[in-house]
Amino acid sequence: MINTLLSYQLQVGICLVLFYIFYKVFLSKETFYKLNRFLLLTLVGLSFALPLLPWGDLWAVYGLSTPALPSSVFKVELAELSVGAGAESLFSGWGILLLVYLVGAGLVWIGVCVEFIKLHQLMKASRLLQKTNGIKVLSLPKLAHVPFSWMSSIFISEEDLAACGEEILLHEKAHVYYKHSWDVLLLNLVLVVQWFNPAAWLLKRELEMVHEYQADAYVLRKGIDAQQYQLLLIKKSVGSYMFHLAKSFNHSHLTKRITMMLKNKSSQWAGLKLMYILPLVGMIAFVLGCSQTGESLGSTDRDAESALTNIQADVHEKPAGQEVLSVAGEMPEFPGGVQELMKYLGASIKYPLEAQKEGLTGRVVVQFVVGKDGAVSNPEVVRGVAPALDDEAIRVVQSMPKWTPGKHKGELVSVKYTLPISFRLK
Prior knowledge:
By secondary structure, the chain is of the alpha+beta class. Helix content is 48%, strand content 15%. The protein contains 13 helices and 13 strands. Strands 1, 2, 8, 9, 10, 11, 12 and 13 form an 8-stranded mixed beta sheet that branches. A 5-stranded mixed beta sheet has the order 3-4-6-5-7, with helices on one face. The longest helix is centred in the first third of the chain and has 33 residues, at 93-125.
């Protein structure tokens, strides 16, 4: 469903924001390049995985979740009533949001495809200069591009190769050895689905910075003079076209790169900051679990596409001097049983046209009393969504036929029921 898809993307986006803040505050300035790279990729993966896990069920097992309805002694386990309105119009609220989302994702995807096309064209126009250990060095048109690498290929002009080829090749070979191109490809795909989220773009930038830190450290470990290398970076910092997918030699944020080269290695104790992620993941899991509590899982038939769940008996009142029990020896029953109740609700509930146009969805919780004579009375909304949906839920409950009344110790009794009805646009 549209709202489910958009809700999932929103939850992923929130996770990305929280994880970005965590990384930026605690680890972005440390010299744990390998760890930071692994952590950034892991955090992105967790952002997409955590909202898919059944945290609501897990917390329910340990009694940590807030119940969607007042607790009761008696519960009949059925499927939750979920009313659909047929094919959802693109002009509804959710439909418009989906359209905007798809347009944005499409534009970002087109941008990625254009980069691939340009890379392919440049690869065809380039000439092989050398090949060692599976790494191809290809020529670049003079001054047309700055040196860069993509997968196992390094692109460099013959002039740069002759003037300062050792430093540039070492830097780009580091990107190839560490397989940084795969990281960039993954993050570009993340941007396609999370284009609206600034944290996704910022995480990509942080990962690219870690790539450059790794490559710079690799060059210096090979014995290149640090001052000479830094001057070369400054010289190449004003360049021509750079591919967003590729790893360019004169990557931006030059000041940060030089600062990290001059910085002493971080203490191993600084790595303990990684432990702060555990309470963060726990907090995210709890919030996701609470958001999942009470969400309907049922699918339906007919235009209403309905099913039933969690019909609960609950007692807190004594209307008109008549005691309303929480538990009866023989519980009230809809004429014909559960299946007939399902059919009745599926046939009776009509998704209000006003709610369809506005894209209104949600769960309406209605309470009512099944009296000693089997009549349904005192229906009230204990948790509403919108007047149109609330009124429809009340209307259907008021129209119910008489139930078979409940009995306790041989006497007829009244019982209050709580019925959750989820309205969803299909």
